[in-house]
Every structure is written in C-alpha cells, then in structure tokens.
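Aim 2 progress update. The chain analyzed this quarter is reproduced below.
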Amino acid sequence: MKDTGIVNIHGKEYKTVAKRVDEFRKEHGTKLAIITSIVSIDEKMVVMKAEISDENLRVIATGFAEENRQASQINRTSALENCETSAIGRALANFGLGGGEYASADEVANAINQQSQPVKKNYSRLDFDEVRETINAIDDEKSLDEYGAELKKKHTNMTANQAKAISEMFNKRREELK
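Predicted structure tokens:
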C-alpha cells in the first residue's frame, strides 16, 4: 500500500508534516526557506519556532510548538525533533499547506495518544524537595503520621525506590523529634 501522506482520523483528513514539506518543496524549491529555532528548552519542556522566509529572509509564515518531555515515549528520547516537526507543520499550515485541517496528522495522532494515556504523577526533584520541606516543618509525631498517611493515599503509584526515599525522610524526622 502506497503512503499518500494523508491520514483519516475520526472522519477528517489530515496531511502529515512530511507531505506538507514535500508539497512546499515541489512548489517553491529553494526559493523559500524553512528556518527553525529553539525558543526555550529545559529538562521538562521544549518550545520551537519555525519560519517560512523568502529569498530576502522576509518572514512569510510562522509556527510554534511545545512538547513535554514526559508526554510520550517518543518525547522522552526525541522531544526536540518532535517539537521541530510540529513547528514546521504549523508554519506550513499558516502558509496555506494545511489541507482540510489546520493540525497535521502527526499532531492529531500525538494528541489522541496523549489523551488515551493515564495521567501519571511525575516525581521530580521538586516533588521530593516539597515533601522534605513539609516533613521538616512538622513538629510532632501525630502530624507526621497524618502527613505520611496522606502521601500514601495520594501517591499510590510510587516506585519502591521513591517510597524508600520518602520513608527515610520520615524516619530521620522522627529521630529529630525525639
């Protein structure tokens, strides 16, 4: 079966970014440029901008994209690349190569995948710092036990290592309170 670059999702046809780029290059060759840049990047998020410019570098269309590194398995390893592709797809849609829908097939498929994934608590360093600060602010064992029960109820998906680290924080504080 030949890949047409058009995907039907819930009765609507979406072009892939690859299809949009192919149409763009066939129509404009190298007369127009697609230029991407990183707007911001850190351990959690990537934001990219794509611009379509003429031969005088006058910007004709732009597109932005944002990707969360923990949103999917692909983003855990390739958030920057995925974000760049999305930004290019949006710039091409702004340029007029969106097809029947503004979002690309890649974006819609990614959104559907993310919606079907259960929301998981991300235990980042900030979460542990917050737990540590709360534990250290408690000045009696009864309140410490109540906070421990609250944590166990609220965060049922902790790994064994996370639970052990938090347990050690509680034990240390109990020793300090004696």
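The first helix runs from residue 17 to 28. Residues 125-177 form one domain. These observations will guide the mutagenesis experiments scheduled for the next reporting period.
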